[in-house]
């Protein structure tokens, strides 16, 4: 057991049973010309999370601990993309439309890939998800929860983008399923800095109602002992 300084209370990390979760660090969110940009967002706002995630990945890999990457993307026929998701708003391009990195948010297209700086290593889990949360519609038949339980994972450390959308949704889903959750403050980012600040505050409010938060510096220093 390793105690990580965290808010609102220290987080007890159980070696080997704690997966690092990297949410949606895909070209479609982080690079110009992708889905995030099609919604009018400044994608450079997400870049601050890349170096902290890389440092956490190195720490997890050095210890042989489990790593799980997610990718938000849809089947090429868009059968898993409801109209309520595709048809909303006035984006410059919609999910499935061709863009500079291929069809937006479609599995197998270059834009759906994880950015090279954070590319999954052999043996790490890569979970494609059609929604915001990582437990909904993933790893069927069976489901992600069952796979995690089968691997003995009880603790999840959250990173990735965007804080208030897919990271927050996934952490809330995980909390409902009984996982001990930590979010790493500088290893997550939003197109809207204010939304990141408030999302972090909501997750840890009321005695850590969804989980705890820490920084990559605090986490890595505690691991190094
Ligand atoms: C969004 C995500 N923002 N990964 N997806 O649509 O947060």
Main sheet overview: 6 strands, parallel
C-alpha Rg (nearest Å): 17 Å
> N-to-C SSE series?
EEEHHHEHEEEHEHEHEH
Which band does the percent of strand residues land in? Answer: 15-25%
Give a brief description.
The chain has helices spanning 27-30, 35-38, 50-63, 83-86, 144-150, 163-176, 193-208, 216-224; strands spanning 2-4, 11-13, 18-23, 67-72, 98-99, 102-103, 125-129, 155-161, 180-189, 212-214. With 225 residues, it is of the alpha/beta class. Helix 7 (193-208) links the parallel strand 9 (180-189) and strand 10 (212-214).
What report would you give on this structure?
With 225 residues, the chain is of the alpha/beta class. It is built from eight helices and ten strands. Strands 7-4-3-8-9-10 form a six-stranded parallel sheet, with helices on both faces. Helix 6 runs parallel beside helix 7. The longest helix has 16 residues. The chain is globular and about 50 Å long. The model has no long low-confidence stretch (mean pLDDT 97). The structure holds dicarbonimidic diamide. The site of dicarbonimidic diamide has 7 residues, from helix 6.
